[in-house]
């Protein structure tokens, strides 16, 4: 379990499927998280059950999905994940979504992603983390930038949503940038929010 000030990240459990089903059938979550990509949702209990069985058995040395819980009420509000962790290149891809809309815009997403970033750079010999979003998702882009991710490029017109083309924005964070940001926060007296323990299996 990895605990911050307002959220914790914990290992995925079978019962999290019901939350995922709700989130993946919310059109606004699908629009923002995946630019309406039908592979993300809407989805059915049966399709999700298949996928969930695989996710629960992921090897955390390569990839994992973690549930984001708000600390105050213990309620699952979203997920973070990492995938394609390559120990040779020292690169991994991360992702986030907060599925409970009333928890948007209160700092939960930024904190959850920050905890994942701290955990990954702390636990693995990674050199860089990558993530992406689409040009219509300005809230996500701001949250990533706030955590120190730099916009490194874009795949022009790579995203199609309701007949309109958008760019896919590519973000990256290097270990030295993460370390420098931690030093700046420590110098400013901001306590390090992460209390990291072994996540896999909780
Ligand atoms: C994108 C997403 C992860 C961002 O998480 P979030 O919790 O909504 O965003 P945050 O609250 O961390 O940041 C948003 C705003 O809240 C403000 N905020 C940050 N910490 C805060 C706090 N402790 N209290 C109050 N407000 C805060 C920030 O200033 C920020 O405002 P700004 O962007 O205008 O600067 C989340 O909205 C989400 O999952 N949305 C749907 C799916 C999605 O878009 N996923 C990303 C796919 S790439």
TrEMBL record:
Residues 7-172 form the N-acetyltransferase domain. InterPro entries: Acyl_CoA_acyltransferase (IPR016181), GNAT_dom (IPR000182). It is an enzyme of class 2 (transferase). It comes from the Bacteria. SUPFAM superfamilies: Acyl-CoA N-acyltransferases (Nat). GO terms for molecular function: acyltransferase activity. Keywords: Acyltransferase, Transferase. Its EC number is 2.3.-.-. PROSITE patterns: GNAT (PS51186). It holds the Pfam family Acetyltransf_3. The keyword Iron-sulfur does not apply. PANTHER family: GNAT-FAMILY ACETYLTRANSFERASE, SPERMIDINE N(1)-ACETYLTRANSFERASE. This is GNAT family N-acetyltransferase. It comes from Kitasatospora misakiensis. The lineage of its organism: Bacteria, Bacillati, Actinomycetota, Actinomycetes, Kitasatosporales.
